[in-house]
Structures are given as C-alpha cells and as structure tokens.
Amino acid sequence: MHLCSMEMFSDEYFMKKALNEAERAFEEDEIPIGAIVVYENRIIGKGYNQTEKLNDVTAHAEMLAITAAATALNSKFLDECTLYVTVEPCTMCAGAISWARFHRIVYGAAEPKYGFSHKAKDVLGKKTEIVSGILAEECASLMKSFFSNKR
User: Fold this and answer.
1) Is residue 108 within 8 Å of residue 136, measured between CB atoms?
2) What is the DSSP string of the chain?
3) Is residue 133 over pLDDT 50?
4) Angle formed by the axes of helices 91-100 and 61-73, to 10°?
5) From the CB of residue 63, how many other CB atoms can be counted at a distance below 10 Å?
6) Nearest partner of 26 among 37, 17, 16, 34, judged by Cα
7) Are 140 and 32 in contact (CB under 8 A)?
8) Which of 62, 88, 111, 129 is catalytic?
9) Known catalytic residue at 111
10) What percent of the chain has pLDDT over 70?
11) What pLDDT score was predicted for residue 2?
C-alpha cells in the first residue's frame, strides 16, 4: 500500500480518511466536514455532514460517526477510541463527544465562530486529549472552496 510518506496509523493517515468523508459531503452539496472513529487502529465509525439530505440539524459528521462506532462496539462509551474530524467540532457535537467519553479528539481546521475549543476542557473534561491542526490547510481549503461556490 502506497501511503505518500504518511505513516500507517498516524494522525495524518486517519485525518486523510476523514477528509475522504468530507469530500463525499462536498460532492453531495453538504458542508464538507468528515469524521471517523478509530479503535485499535481500525476505523469503526465514519460519517459526513448530511443535514440537508436527512433534513436533520443533528446529522453532523461527528454524530453519525459516533453512532456507527457505538453500534460497532455495542457500547455507548468510546473511551478507548479516537475521533478524527476535519473541522473543530461545534458545541452540540462536543456534548456528544463528552458523553461518549472519547480518549482523544483530533481535528484539522479551527472553527473560530462555532468551534468548541474555547470551552473544550469545560465540556470534555481533563481526561480527553485534544490535538488540533492536523492537515489543517487541506481541511480549511475544502471548506473555503465549498463556501466560495455558494457566494
């Protein structure tokens, strides 16, 4: 398998998988955010924004990935999992992330307007590791491209 200098199972490797989900959203004219859940170096849940398609304001990429992962593990707690998401989660998703008890959250592009980072530790607690800026340029570029096409 050719990984283009990305180490297998690195944060960059998994963020690229989340970006693949975001590209699906882009192709379906949804806000291009993608998310995956990883457990023991395996993707057990994935999702991309589908709020328009499902006519559901809660159908964010993170929410769909969390539901898929919980089903895969047959557990509501995902405390041994890492969530990769292309854009900093909103406060609604941060609440779900908190309840699921994720071990790590890794996101790409910052979202200064709706993102959770300014209160992340209050919402997620001290045990959750938060990593930001992984493939941030690629993640932000997809968002900018989407919104520039809307104007």
Assistant:
1) yes
2) ---TTPPTTSHHHHHHHHHHHHHHHHHTTS---EEEEEETTEEEEEEE--HHHHT-TT--HHHHHHHHHHHHHT-S--TTEEEEEEE--BHHHHHHHHHHT-SEEEEEE--TTTBSGGGHHHHH-TTSEEEE-TTHHHHHHHHHHHHHHH-
3) yes
4) 10
5) 21
6) 34
7) no
8) 62
9) no
10) 89
11) 45
- Kindly report, residue by residue over 24-65, the tens digit of the pLDDT: 999 999 999 999 999 999 999 999 999 999 999 999 999 999
Decide: residue 116, CB within 10 A, 0-12 exposed, 13-18 middle, 19+ buried: buried
Determine which of 1-5, 109-113, 133-137 has the lowest per-residue pLDDT on average.
1-5
